[in-house]
Request: fold
Amino acid sequence: MTLETLFSFANAVALLGWVILALAPLRRDLVVTAARAVAGVLAVTYTALLVRTLTSGGFSGDLTTLAGLTEGFSRPEAVLVGWVHYLAFDLWVGSWAIEDAGKRGVPHWAMVPVLFLTLMAGPVGMLLYLGLRATLSRPRA
Reply:
């Protein structure tokens, strides 16, 4: 499988997970479990890509300096590994936020921008959720 094919596969799988999270009001527990399963598929993909990249010499560079990191990610194999890492972790954070929002009574309409921002800029979405959680949480009956 080519790197481009793997990139397209990872993106499609991640998008499936985000669509699932958007359906949270239907059956939150099932939705969170399904999204985490998708994140698990991405994590397995990441692990396989990481091992393949490290054992084939597809990553070189000193990870303790910006110049070394830039050198290390100058190869497509390493960029793909990093990208799948982001996809898996951001989806996991999104699934946590949806699960936590349900427990805290944060309305789903408020979670839609959180999901979008977590997908597009992970930490920004997480910060938005933490702010919403602080202001919109209500005890569940």
The CA atoms of residues 114 and 129 lie 6 Å apart. Helices lie at 3-22, 28-55, 66-72, 76-104, 108-120, 122-136. The two ends are 51 Å apart (CA to CA). The mean pLDDT is 93.
